[in-house]
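Hello Y.,

Per our agreement to keep a running log of every chain we model this quarter, I'm adding this entry. I've kept the format consistent with earlier entries: sequence first, then predicted structure.
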Amino acid sequence: MKKLILIIFCLIISPNLFSQSYTVNFVKSMKVNVVEDSTNTDEEIEYLNFVKQINKNLENINYKLLLNENESIFKVEKAMKIDENDRQIKLATRLGGGRGEYYTNFISKKILQKADGFGQLFLISSNLKDFKWKITKEKKIINGKQTYKAILMNENVENKTYAWFCPDIPSTTGPLGYGNLPGLILELHLKNGFAFYANRIVISSDVIEITPPAKGNKVTREEFEKIEEEAMNNIKKG
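Predicted structure for the entry above:
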């Protein structure tokens, strides 16, 4: 832990470390919560087949994080030769998060998510500092980079969201706008069973120009959640 604190301190006092831009590719997968064997019930078999189909479709979907000194943007980047009208591809993209764009400004500490829902386009604002983590002593190598595990603490659930972040890349961001850690998130495991994995990191000395999303109905995260709740209640009422 002392070594980690030293690394973090060095990053804070060394602003010239971040003189590069990054392009990080991510893939997504759904975790299987049922062991496949001869004793599986019909419901378990159906679930396993569903997960297999989702993960098969996710093989054709890539996500990209563009990152410079002051901002980042995370968005889906479908592979070539994918039918845009394929319902299974659309379902795989939407499940577990990842639809739309997630823009983060490191100066203002603001996150802006562009998402479509209920026949409207929204710009959902939230704060980077809302993410509160517990950094553990666990570490592992991802894409040749030393990473450390952090557990999201502002979730009152048994299966918490956790991330593996890299202090060598001094940026407080990651997939889906998750961040507020002393390093770039290279692996993100969500409480809903989905996970994002960095599989390629490209470093550039040129500054990547990032344009924040601008079109959409501007709402806060809390306002959007109320809109979602009202829409679901209306659907249930029929």
